[in-house]
Design goal:
362 residues; alpha/beta; three-stranded parallel β-sheet; three-stranded antiparallel β-sheet; globular
Length: 362
């Protein structure tokens, strides 16, 4: 059985009473999105498709994360213009040109063109929308009430020892607007005191301002390892895979599972761990501008070939892609080979090859 069909059957078996599923994935828009991000995107999109073909309702939600702090400066952005914005929420960083209202919209518009070409029936959302609507507010309160327990989970799960004054909350500085350089110093259940520290992180310089703020309606955010399990609940996620870096022992997925179960008492979605997509043997980074960009590959390969590239291998197998060698010609050859099996042009049909071709179609 083709791996996608196996996964769909496992999801159904794990949720015998469900008729509707929510499949979710996300990307932080800190730079032009590299091609490796397409693996998780396509994987989740075709899993939702496989569930729909079995008679279930399956939504595929893709979140553009526009509220994380800007913590990297891609080489193609003007350092003189953008360095001053390091540490601000991405949505507060200006667009490189007038085509978008801010930096994440600028990069998101380009990536959305790629996604739309792939025919994955995608519902888009912004991370800031949920924060601004107050949907994270009760979870911020719960996290702050459980700060000692969360510090304990960090230490036991990943070996990360947080000082006793560390709190699972980031707030925006009212003076400089940065969220990556602030440290919460106190909490009374409604208001957080903070200091915007000049040298707390290497990639942003705080202004030294001290203040007090209600961290609700988008004025504060949870750190990633605490935020992720909240997203599972806020979006009512049933299926969400995780890349190798998140899924490693002690990684953010392991931590998220513990925080979901032990702190928030919420569910954990069905996980689909998947390996890296390597470009020329190396992992890529959007925030640093390293590797091939998804839009560049989209301009080279037909969408069916992109889908085929991402789903022909099992998720636990890395994908190697190097346009400087025979990768692209071999990809076309393999696609044609699978087409022959789908259309029964060979004596003995390999059903996995046929299914790989089928799921590659728009």
């Amino acid at each position: 059985m083709f791996w996608l069909d196996e996964v769909a059957e496992e999801i159904i078996k794990a949720n015998p009473d469900k008729k509707e599923f929510t499949v979710r994935d996300e990307k932080t828009l800190s730079g032009r999105v590299h091609v490796g991000s397409l693996r998780g995107l396509v994987l989740h999109g075709v899993v939702a498709q496989a569930l729909r073909e079995r008679g279930f309702t399956a939504r595929f939600i893709y979140e553009f994360n526009d509220i994380d702090p800007m913590d990297g400066l891609p080489v193609y952005l003007d350092a003189k213009k953008f360095k001053q914005h390091m540490g601000k929420p991405l949505r507060d960083v200006p667009s490189p040109d007038a085509s978008a209202k801010n930096l994440p919209e600028y990069f998101g518009n380009e990536f959305r063109e790629v996604i739309d070409s792939l025919g994955l029936e995608t519902e888009y959302t912004l991370a800031s929308e949920k924060y601004d609507a107050g949907e994270y507010d009760p979870w911020i309160i719960k996290a702050m009430r459980s700060e000692a327990q969360i510090r304990k989970i960090y230490k036991e799960g990943s070996g990360s020892v947080k000082p006793d004054d560390w709190r699972p909350l980031q707030v925006g500085c009212e003076n400089c607007g940065k969220i990556g350089s602030t440290k919460v110093t106190g909490w009374d259940g409604k208001m957080a005191t903070y200091v915007c520290e000049p040298d707390m992180v290497k990639w942003a310089e705080g202004c030294g301002h001290k203040g007090k703020i209600a961290p609700f309606k988008g004025k504060g955010k949870l750190p990633w390892k605490v935020e992720w399990p909240v997203k599972w609940k806020v979006y009512n996620v049933d299926v969400e895979g995780s890349g190798k870096d998140h899924g490693a022992a002690g990684g953010s997925h392991d931590m998220g599972v513990r925080i979901a179960k032990e702190v928030f008492k919420t569910h954990v979605p069905f996980d689909i761990p998947y390996e890296f997509f390597l470009f020329g043997g190396a992992k890529m980074s959007s925030s640093k501008g390293e590797g091939a960009m998804a839009y560049e590959i989209y301009r080279i390969l037909p969408p069916e070939l992109i889908r085929f590239l991402m789903i022909r291998s099992r998720p636990n197998q890395p994908i190697e892609f190097d346009p400087n060698d025979e990768t692209i010609p071999r990809l076309f050859d393999r696609y044609d080979e699978c087409a022959d099996h789908y259309f029964a042009k060979v004596e003995e049909v390999n059903k996995d090859f046929a299914r790989a071709f089928y799921f590659a179609q728009i």
